[in-house]
């Protein structure tokens, strides 16, 4: 960090020299850095894929369990728990709207 601060304190010639060095050394240094970082990037991506798969599997298992519990409750209690109040509320709304007209 001190090296960069020292370069920024210099004059315009220092900035031009740093830019020229980056221009000439960039094509040789960047591919080397890219080759060195490629395995690291692949490892990070693989870790992300594994984490995604485990998360999706966990959500799928949770959803399957919830659906099984809901079906079991419907079979045990019958369908009146879900359809009964909905149908009655719909009929009451229709009757009250007829009375207004």
Model description:
The structure is a single chain. The chain is mainly alpha-helical. It has one domain. It is 94% helix and 0% strand. It is built from three helices and no strands. It has helices at residues 2-9, 12-77, 80-100. The protein is rod-shaped. The mean pLDDT is 78.
Characteristic key phrases:
rod-shaped, mainly alpha, 101 residues, single chain
Taken together, the total number of domains comes to 1
Structural class: mainly alpha
**How widely separated are the two ends?**
80 Å
Range of strand content? under 5%
- Mind describing the biggest β-sheet? none
Order of helices and strands: HHH
Mean pLDDT: 78
Total of DSSP H or I helical runs spanning 4+ residues: 3
C-alpha-based Rg, rounded: 34 Å
Give the overall form: rod-shaped
How is the quaternary structure best described? single chain
Give the total of beta strands.
0
Low-confidence stretches: none
Helix content, binned percent: over 70%
């Amino acid at each position: 960090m001190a090296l960069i601060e020292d370069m920024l304190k210099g004059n315009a010639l220092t900035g031009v020299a740093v830019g020229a060095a980056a221009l000439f050394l960039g094509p040789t240094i960047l591919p080397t850095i890219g080759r060195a970082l490629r395995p690291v990037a692949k490892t990070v991506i693989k870790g992300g894929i594994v984490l995604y798969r485990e998360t999706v599997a966990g959500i799928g298992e949770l959803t399957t369990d919830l659906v099984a519990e809901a079906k079991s409750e419907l079979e045990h209690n019958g369908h009146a728990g879900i359809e009964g109040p909905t149908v009655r509320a719909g009929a009451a709304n229709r009757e009250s709207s007829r009375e207004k007209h």
